[in-house]
Amino acid sequence: MNFFHKTNFDFSTKAKNWILDRYQDKFNRKFYHDLDITQYDSQVEWHNSLAGKELIEFLSKYNCDTNYYGISAFISNMPYDIKSNPHIDTKFKQGNSYRIKTRFNVMVLGNPQDPMVWWDHIEYGNSKLTESKFHSITGQEYCSKSIPGNDPISRWDYLGTPTIQTSNLLTPSAFVKTDCAHAVILSSVPRLIVTVALDKTLSEITKILD
To answer: How far is CA 133 from CA 68, 76, 154, in A?
Structure first.
């Protein structure tokens, strides 16, 4: 089973500055690792930006696009190192949820040595998953299927030893498997990852390289 495919895509300096300007005010306080789901309402702005155009052009080389769930960002600014919440990515639309097989992630800020881990024995649709309520950093509430446990630590304990762990993954970008349990061990530095959810497996994405 493949869990990631690294690429050399990076944003231009001008595109990075646009992204940083967009999120700069978020880093004035400390907050837990989160997906900025509010960006799903701003896709026209993303697509018209240099950053969006560069991203879309690169994805087209793999026969991928941003149509499945748009462009968004993972952001965090923790005051200490932390094992982030193990989870399985899900697309939400009109009260329904759908599998996110893969993501394309690009590091704009952060420590590339932060390890990402996967557990292959818990995948999307597993009957052991429970439904939990979460809040985005903007206060929006959403529900997601989650790993059994009351907090990140208990979920790590439930899952046991990861199937695989890798550092220097986003140097600067990679396609990553997201339909099985996974997490990132975060450093205490500002982190901003631009991300695109994809309805394709890693094998489907990388077959163009065969």
So the answer is: 23, 19, 17
What pTM was estimated for this model as a whole? Answer: 0.92
CATH number of residue 79's parent domain: 2.60.120
State how far the Cα of 12 lies from the Cα of 67, in Å rounded to an integer.
23
Identity at 125, one-letter amino acid code: G
Picking from 135, 130, 136, the residue whose alpha carbon sits closest to that of residue 73 is: 136
Rounded alpha-carbon distances, angstroms, from residue 69 to 39, 66, 171: 10, 6, 24
pLDDT-above-90 percentage for the chain:
72
**What is the span of the domain harbouring residue 55?**
4-209
Residue 16: C-alpha distances to residues 19, 52, 89, 99, 107 (Å): 5, 11, 25, 29, 10
Cβ neighbour number for residue 125 with a 10 Å cutoff: 9
What is the domain count for the chain?
1
Cα–Cα dist 52/15, whole Å? 8
Q: What is the pLDDT of residues 166-190, one digit of tens each?
A: 999 999 999 999 999 999 999 999 9
